[in-house]
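Review session, final week

We close the course with one last complete record, chosen because it touches almost every idea we covered. It is RGS domain-containing protein, a protein from Pleurodeles waltl with 181 residues. Go through it on your own first, then we will talk.
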Amino acid sequence: MCKGLAALPHTCLERAKGIKTKLGVLLQKPESAFDLIIPYPEKPEKTIKAPKPSVEEALQWRDSLDKLLDNSYGLTAFRSFLKSEFSEENVEFWVACEDYKKTKSPAKMSLKAQKIYEEFIQTEAPREVNIDHFTKAVTLKNLVEPSPTSFDLAQKKIHALMEKDSLPRFLRSDLYLELIE
């Protein structure tokens, strides 16, 4: 396999696996056309289960990414928007870090830290976030003895990236514009 496959979104890889399976079926049982139907993944639902914010609350999201992330409806809407763009790894990393910070048990903290590192930080991770080598090195060093602050530097870099890049796109999205109308 080429190194570039790990960078593809998970949904693309799953679809490719499905196609490969169906092609294998074709080679073995060409008379069964029904086996060859490959369903296309449905678009993510737009329904959000958190209480809808007031227009004033939603307008405050323009001022601060933190206000958006602290609002359960805002976080859900932001995640949904990023998933629709196949770029949800940053917000998922941020959420994983927030959950990690709440962990009390050292054993659970160590397991969660390893999972976060493998999923988001290490080179060619399935949902690798875009951070520099220095930040990766500091984060790896912090994981020798996991603490609630182990991912702080990486989380701050991703927060800044979302604030600069993802938030402005979200604020121009139909999802957000419909909410403030």
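Two points worth writing down before the exam:
Residues 61 and 179 are 12 Å apart (CA to CA).
The radius of gyration is 20 Å.
Good luck, everyone.
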